[in-house]
TrEMBL record:
Domain HTH lysR-type: 8-65
Superkingdom of the source species: Bacteria
Protein name: Transcriptional regulator, LysR family
Family: Belongs to the LysR transcriptional regulatory family.
Keywords: DNA-binding, Plasmid, Transcription, Transcription regulation
Gene Ontology molecular functions: DNA-binding transcription factor activity; transcription cis-regulatory region binding
Annotated InterPro entries: LysR_HTH_N, LysR_subst-bd, WH-like_DNA-bd_sf, WH_DNA-bd_sf
Amino acid sequence: MKRTRSPIDLRALEAFVAVCETGSMTAAAKRLQVSQSAVSQSVAALEREQGTDLFDRDSRPPRPNLAGRALLELAGPLLQHAHTVSGRIRDASLAGALPVRLGCVDSFAATVGPEIIRAMSSSTRQIEMWSGLTPALSGQVHNGEVDVVVCTHTVINDHRIIELPLLSEAFLAVASRRWLDGRAPKDSHWRQLAAELPLIRYTARSVIGQQIERLARHLGINSPRRYEFDATDPMLSLVSANLGFAISTPLCLWQARHYLNEIAVFPLPTGRLSRRDFLILHRQGEWIEFVEHISSLTGRVLDQLICPALTRSLPQLPADALLPKLTN
């Protein structure tokens, strides 16, 4: 009858790896902070369980034989996975005490973010919040470096990551109010704007910059690339000076709201390319209540604070320019 080998004991495997890497039982025992006899017994038990010798006992220092080298090659990933599993279990057991790591794109972090922090300031839940670009944030939630992410686009192909719709906003043409001086309403249109002024862009390395470029091509806006910015604030400084027009969104405009009295907005044609959708990402089975809380808070902040303030400052703003939660 064929003998069934026992599953590998991870502590014995750790001792085996330590002997291979340090070159002796004594050095391995020192690294693992156990006695030399404990290391010797662990290695002997591992060989007994696997039914084969793992070291060439005739060499000094002892070197792994063919079976030992094969095991050593596989041992690293096994031990790393075991440590990851142990860490995940420990984190789950401490979930009530751990701060949630929340990553957000800049326009969300600078507008809705402070209101979320303020609303949760009386809660026992601690939040570590930082901002970044969508590609980096998507990668961080995939790698487990953040717990929850608010971003505008994702290409993550990972069934463990849950993507939920959070809000949607329309792209708008933005010009200086000085451009409107003396114009009839029929001339105050995005087409006239694009015919007279250069397009001031977000940088092409940002997701919003790429989205706007696709929209501009679709609308037939062929303005040469002259000015590009990473942020809305410097872009609106040129727009308010009537040096060009921009395509932006309500949240970005609210982020640079000290310019609202100097600009006007113009609706763009509706369509698949004319909106920017925000998603909230988290790992399956983790931080579900927190995600629901963030979603609810976002809706309240938009309905009660940001949308009314934007409408007062920009009466041309379409009613559907900023909508909490997408609908199917």
